[in-house]
Every structure is written in structure tokens, then in C-alpha cells.
Amino acid sequence: MDLTLFMYLIPSLIMFGCGVYGFITRKNMIAIMISLELMLNSVDINFVVFNRYLFPGQMDGMFFSLFAIAIAAAETALVLAIIINVFRIAKNVDINQITKLKF
Amino acid sequence: MESLGNIILYFIVAIAIIAFSLLTVTTRKILRSATYLLFVLFATAIIYFQMDYQFLGAVQIAVYAGGIMVLFVFAIMLTQKPGQDADALASHRRWLGLSAALGGVALCGYGLFSYAGFARRVLSSDVDVTMEKIGQFLLSTDKFGYLLPFEAISVLLLACIIGGVVIARRR
Questions:
Q1: Mean pLDDT across the stretch B38-52?
Q2: What is the distance in angstroms between the Cα of A29 and the nearest Cα belonging to chain B?
Q3: Residues 6 or more apart from B68 whose CB is under 8 A from it?
Q4: Does CATH number 3.10.180.10 belong to domain B1-83?
Q5: pTM of the prediction?
Q6: Per CATH, which fold does A7-90 belong to?
Q7: Hey, which of B45, B82, B108, B142 would disulfide with B57, CB 3.0 to 4.6 Å?
């Protein structure tokens, strides 16, 4: 039995599907961010696995994953700062109840 | 032909990824959701190690599991009451989410199963991803060099630090 490229794409696909489901159904902003991290992570797996199986001599997919991880870290830090600031103003992080910007 | 240990490791990792991803989005307690996300990230790091990209696995553990998860836990502790359950989902919302997720997975799965001649490839062993090579690629300006994105990332991180301080500062 061999480990084919296919076998790594299946868990990553299911991870992405879970991320989509959580992103749509969750109401808490932090839970939405967690679902977003799931989606980003599955894309990173795809980059790495495609690179390793189809172009083992090059390292482009690995560098893309590296930069994606760095950007995800920066983005998460900023989003969580925004969420904490929203909580300080509205005492809530549910997307249904933050309507102060609507008029 | 892979070694038996590799295959067993693959199945453990694949089952862990699938189970913990499902638990992450279905559990009602948000701190548990963050913990399950941590397990998913560790399983991903194991996949990177299995692909011989040791540096990337180390970065995954250090940045994601070490840095981002701490931020998440802090944000959850600061904004949620401990032990609080999330509200039950409205059924139309759950159906919307389920149909979007299952539709996307079915479409991609169909594409994978029908067009994936390349997906039968097996792992070739002729790969040498040494630390020295990664450093040279990161700081070279040749055809496959990554100096420009490297510098752009450093500027982005600086902007992120300043933005975080400005946003979170108490006025």
C-alpha cells in the first residue's frame, strides 16, 4: 500500500468543509476566526503536499505556506485586538447584537 | 512501498484531523473549540514532518500552536464568561451552513475523483530540504528567490504591531 497524493487531499478537503460550515453557522466572532484558521490551515496543507509530490525538487509550495502562516499570524493578532476593542465598547462579541454602526 | 510505521502514522493523523475538525465547529463551548483547533494544528505539523519539511513543521508548531493559540485563549478568557454554552443554532442557519459545506466538499471531491491522474503519484525520496538551502532561497534575488516577499512580510509585521497597539490602546 502506498501513500498517494490523494490520501492527503481528503483530510484537507474535509477540514476546509468544516471551516466553511463553522464560518457560516457560528455567531461568536472568535468562533468565526477559529473556523477561518481551519480553512487557512487546509490550504497550507494543500500547498505543501502538492509541492512535495509533484515538484519534489523545488520548494515554492513550502515558501508559500511559510508566508501564509506569517500573514495568518499577523491577521489573527489584529482581528483579536479589534474583537477585544469591540467587546470593550459593546460588552458583546456576537455578530447579531453588534449593530451600532447601522443607522 | 511505504514503511508500515509511516502508513499507521498517516491513518492516525488523518483520523485525528477529520475528527477534531468536526469537533471544532460542532462543540458548543468555545474554549473546547480552541483546544480542538490546537490538536488539528499539531496533526498538520505531523504531516509537514512526514513530508520531510522539518522547518515548516517547526514554524507551524511555534507560530500557530504557540503564538496564535495563546492569543485565542486570551481573547476567549477576556470576552466570555467561563463555562458558557453558545446558543443553539437556528435551523435555517444550520441548513445553510450544511448545504454550503457539503456542496463545496462534494464538488471538490468529484473533481478529485474524476480528474486526478496526478493524484496517484507516490512520494519520491530524492529531496533535501536543508536549513542552508532554505536560507539561501529566502535571501536570494534569483529566479526562485524570495527576498521581496520576505521583506514585504517584515514590513507587514511592523504594520501589524503598530496597528495592534493603536487599536487595543485605551483612550
A1: 93
A2: 10
A3: A37, A72, A73, A76
A4: no
A5: 0.90
A6: Helix Hairpins (1.10.287)
A7: B45
